[in-house]
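Example complex used in Figure S2.
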Amino acid sequence: MSSESIAEYEVAYAKPKAFYERYERKEELQHATHYCPGCGHGTVHKMLARAIDDLGIKDRTILVGPVGCSVFTYYYFDVGNVQAAHGRASAVATAMKRSHPGSVVVSYQGDGDLSAIGSAEILHAANRGENITVIFVNNAVYSMTGGQAAPTTLIGQKTTTTPDGRNPLNEGYPLRVSELLATLEAPVYIERVGLGDNKQVAHADRAIRRAMENQVRGLGFSLIEVLSPCPTIWKMKPVDAQRWVREEMEKTFPLGVYRDRTKDATPRPMPKTAPALEALPGILGIDGDEDLAEDAVCATDAAIDLRVRVAGFGGQGVLLLGEVLAEAGLDAGLEVSWLPSYGPEMRSGTSNCHVRLAHEPIDSPLVTAPNVLIAMNEPSLRKFDANVQPGGWVIYNGEEFPPDCARQDVHVLARPFTQIADALGDARAANMVMLGALLEMTPGLPQASIDAALRRLVKNPKWVELDECALTRGRELAREVLQEVLQEV
Amino acid sequence: MRKQLMKGNEAIVRSAILAGCRAFYGYPITPASEITEAAALYLPQVGGVFLQAESEVAAINMLYGASSAGVRCMTASSGPGISLMQEGISYMAGAELPCVIADITRGGPGLGNIASEQGDYHQVVKGGGNGNYRTLVLAPNSAQEMADLTAWAFDLADRYRNPVVVLADGFVGQMMEPVAFPRSAVAPRLPGWAVAGTQESRGNLITSLHMEANALEAHVRKLETKYREAERNETRSEAWCTEDAEIVLVGYGIVGRILKAVTAEARAEGLRVGVLRPITLYPFPTAQFERLARRARVFVVVEMSNGQLLEDVKLALNGARPVEFLNRMGGNVPSHDEVFAFVRELAARMGLETAAAEEQMAHV
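Predicted assembly (853 residues):
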């Protein structure tokens, strides 16, 4: 019939506008879908398309297609289309909705896709209460791949992978997705509908529309499970397949509303407007000291090439000691690096870090042969002592240097730093007493840089005061030893 | 802007946001968790999205969604997590979706350990997902490069509409160094191909599905054209003391830094040693290798994995020069002394005179 002859008639029923006029993404038979006769997908597609039409949201709608028979949803729906990996549609939909909160995102999934491989993604999307609409088409089998068992396959149902029928002892029981998700707090609307007869179809149509409307109103997560016939795989006539939905599937999967908080739900807040681009450096904490030149002039003339290894128990402030040193070096215009031990090493009680300060760009930040070792306990001393460069320093936290660790070719400062710090006010300041000693032994870093570093890294003013005191004490202790060394020379 | 001391992992996130990244979907794993934590702190403040996914599989598929929606997006993980993401990476390459993935490599295979390693080279550089695709791979060696290469990664991802991986080892992620950032931030921009829930974008389709053999072949050839273009235009490496180098040390990431230290010492002894550090692992700096092969006598690959970089170096040299190999694994790092001893022994074995010795000979 030509379009001219149709024009004479009043159109009582037309294809929804959310469908393409012709399915041009399809290779052939562009006027028809790829679905088998009697398949439920066509019916569900029409319900979804009508809901999109009725709500006037065609431009805003994004349809996430799954893997399975409905993999080609983008052939048909004249909306934004995204095809997802098997089972991942609700994860994809999550991010699409969060990227464009004003869009209407539909995750259209089959039972293999949603209830098997995508069971984690749907569970968590529902639990987060994503403001998306999920259409879950349950036909109790994997149809696209030729009729293998699904988590939703009925007890006793024969499939190509349950040739003797589903046996609960082997494959477990049919997974009731709607009931499962209804145990969660977040979902707003969950209903199982069927395509078993016209009455059911009419009801399913209303349910899908409501699920879409909920999203438009910003209420949150809605899921409609549709018990849907698959005559081809079930090897039934379409009419018998519909009857099987009604008489067999429904026994395992009772129809009904499993969650409806539509009335009580309040629209989810829209995200705040983004700050101006100019505000970003401030937010990221990288806008400070704009007045300083890009390449700060080095504040020290002394030749500095510090290769420090700091080691001790977790909680002794090993990493902070290193950080203050590196930060002070940076402040003084030196090249610096700080490399921590990390992970379970950090949690199992020992901790160490590598710190380098130099005038030239630092090649390797790893300090295998330190010229200063700060050993905050005996195990650390034993671990790293042998690697200290000849002529280097070992600063050891202990009453007495273990005689079997003694080396003739390194300088040693051994003091009970923990007790010394305790006398100053807090044993935890031992790290700063030791750092003070290091600074005295390797002069060159301006005191102002050390003060600046301390204030940048230690937020509590009480601690800054104590740490400054500790640094001074450390310097005094080092001076005593330095005099001895000089006398020896 | 004054340089700030920060971890490479923290530099990545700040740089990403300045580069216009407004979505981060991730899953915690040592030694990459600081990236996810920094993203959780900053992205909501800049009007972006942060979500901790239920798995790396979900995280990468969320990136698929965010990227489809036209948002500059990233994730971060390490070995085992990257393995789980391979499905999504293949889909994204197939659907031509840009994204940035930071892989802060740890020890493997399996649970391995959390120490620094480079064993993800194959799964990242060669692509661990199915099908005919590549990911562009950038290998920073410092906190500053973590920032710089992340910003570049977003540009590359958009230019080639392809996932880009920033492949770093745990050291580069965990260490603190001074970092400077650009003064201006990039404004997010919606690409024309995105599906954004608007009238203009309604006709757009994101898919990696091409049912007809000819259609899929044409699609893969189109991807190949992009990769050839990247090979021509985006290859980067750092050459250090290579002008007269007879022994060229090759390593990326933290290893490149150790090799520099060795070179300095070897040069002091008069050995003509240099370093070639690939910065792009794909596209691989093949031309640089060919160029250095004209002068160099031997190449030494040093890596924290089982000969994965070695294969690409051999391919690049194509037999032009011998390739020696030194590696450590499991979280062990090839130490400065270890590499230097190897170089010394190699020089002696190959009869390579030191420059000092040659000079002496010339005087005689």
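Chain B has a mean pLDDT of 96. DSSP finds 13 helices and 16 strands in chain B.
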